Amino acid sequence: MNYIAIVYQAFATDDTEIISLSSKAINKTLCHMSSIQIIKLDEQFRRYTSLEWYIDWELISLEDLKSNIRNQEEYLNVIRLGTFHPNGFLREKCLMELSEDPEALPYLLLRLNDWVQPIRDRICGIIKKSICNSSIHNVIAALPFLEKAKKGERRNLDVFMQIEYMIVQKIKGQISDLKIYEIYKYDFHVRKYLYCLLLNEKIVSKEQAEQLLQREKNSSNCKTIIISAILDDYICDLNEIDVYLQNKSAVVRRKALDRKYAILKKNWAGIEKLLLDNSKGFRETVCYIIKKHTDIDIINYYIEHLETEYTRVAILGIGENGNKENVKDIISYLQSYNEKEVRDTLKSLGSCLGTDGESIYWKYIMDPRISVAKSAYNAIRSNEIRYGSKQIYERFLNCEYEFTKRYLVNLLLNESSWSRLPYLLQLYNYEDISLQDKIRKKATQRSCYSKLSEIEAEKLRKIMNDSTLRIPAKLISDIELDLKYVTVDNIINDQQNIKLAKRSDDIDWNKQYEFVEHIGIKSYEQIHFEECKYIWKNWVPKQGQADYLQGELLRQAEKLRNEAMDNGNINWDDNFDWFCDFLKYTLVDSDIFGQEKIEKLK
Q: pTM for the full model?
């Protein structure tokens, strides 16, 4: 989807041919997008336009744009997409332009969670007008967008409730005009939210709900929503509930179980048979009821069913409810010819043994059966077991199965940064592209709190100087710089390294500022664009504060730039004041500027 943001830059030019081609491309793309794809586009669009510092979007004229895009549908889709733009002035212009567009409701609803307060305030009236002027079909098509806005943290609750009430009333008032078969014309995501609204608001009767269930042929998810709503919101007798207890959907069975228990408020005859259900969540609820109201020995019940048709469920049940003492009852199933039984046994052993089963997991991660190796891998990850970078790498070299290599590489990535680095460098050009990206990213993530012996540092340098590995010179340079600050004379083992890495109070800030000086962030002018791009890509997270000082400085500077250039500082508050203070005091106290520049900073 990132190319759409790139194409959108065409509307900041005077080239009518490029504008025409770009509008056609955007129109074609949006017309074939589902509701969920459009929502995802809204989340991602501004990430690819936030670095367009050279364009002043406030100066873009929609009248000129309209004259250059002669097709009305193409123009409207360009404007609809403009409501996703990071520039607040442009978004506001586009929203006002769409106030008369009967199909713009989905895009308007997303702006209830806009990050600019005046836009959130203004959009309310536009949305209310749009709801009144929209057909029931357009309102229904906007339901996924309403749900998205509902989950937002910025939207005003009172305003949202007013809009939600208007939509519900609109559908209630015109539902008689909507034929049942017409519902299936909407895509899956729209139907899903429509069913929730119709049933939770009891707009349809129980009989109509069952009719919807009968007609819903394609989506088990939609069927689950309908049945769950019937159980939650309509009166059902115990016979109906027992029928739903046999449903294929684990969600429906769970709902039926909860409903039956809510009615009876106690156990019932034969409840222990439900312990053999395939769903873990279902079994957990049954266990809760049995433990509360009966003296049935759950572990013994599962042991009794090990040599029956329910062997796999019994193995899993012992793992969910047992401990180390029950390992003897299931460990023999590791020798089973049934792959699924071996897989489930490893899963249960992971629960019962925890880290004590590390040798078992290490053995079976090399199993030629994919599901068995994956179960062993999951047991290792869930118990946070580390085998050491060297041991993992040596096993990787002797591994013949690609799926096992993937598990081993992922385990290697989870080791401490400096212990894994020599082996990541040897895997730097690994043929699996998805793993290669992870390896290269982890190779750039090195703890500045760890310590490395001279011997370990020399081994690392030897690997870096191996021309056959084709390690980038920039990465080698960065690692060499880091080695100056983490290398010590004495030998420090991995366990000490891990402890040091967790001691954030040991940060040597002077060394951090030497890093800053090294990449050149010393001038007000844009003279290190590539370095800043690198920091932005690697050290600035998508959400929250950065882990590295350089990343945090750039993140805060970009926040201030974005607010000034895109929003005219209209959202200025104490957070932005804090950013300014942080930048000022951090740079002043860094000892990398002369007195003249320090005075300018102050």
A: 0.62
